[in-house]
Amino acid sequence: MNPVELHNALQIHRPVLGDTVGLALFRLVRLVAMEDILGAGASAVTYYAGKKLGRELGLTKLDDFLALCDQLKIGLIKIPTLTDHLIHVDVCECVTCSGMTPVGRVLCHFEGGLIAGAVGSILKKDVQAREVSCIGGLGNATCGFDLVIP
What we know:
A hairpin with a 3-residue loop joins strand 1 and strand 2 (86-92). The protein has a single domain (6-148), classed as Muramoyl-pentapeptide Carboxypeptidase, domain 2. The protein is built from 6 helices and 4 strands, in the order H-H-H-H-E-E-H-E-H-E. It has a 4-stranded antiparallel sheet with strand order 1-2-4-3. Helix content is 43%, strand content 17%. The protein has 150 residues and is α+β, with helices and mostly antiparallel strands. The chain has helices spanning 6-9, 23-38, 42-56, 62-72, 109-123, 135-138, and strands at 76-82, 86-92, 128-133, 143-148. The relative contact order is 0.17. The termini are far apart.
């Protein structure tokens, strides 16, 4: 059985419904179904899935990643800290959790992995992301990620 490759998954032909889907469906799969099936391991699986996807995008410039985030409506991305060893990324209106009632833990593992994978690919380093704030998880204003650059 052949895996579904990135370029194939991004080919969309829906003449009537278009290339968008309701955010509720994404959240039901991502936050409810995956956690129900994978339990406590869901956060690690979604982080590494995001990281693998971020690397496979093959991006070479940070501006290209920001444009992709805008195109896919992942959220409004801001980078208030950018140094040789630390990048802080804030995601406003996060696709995974914006608008939710806080649940007492961070939720946006996929986004953290995606950011770490894409930035790591751009910098050609193994970047790790840690979510330090979360809109729907902790009630913060943004979903914030600290990226440690080795």
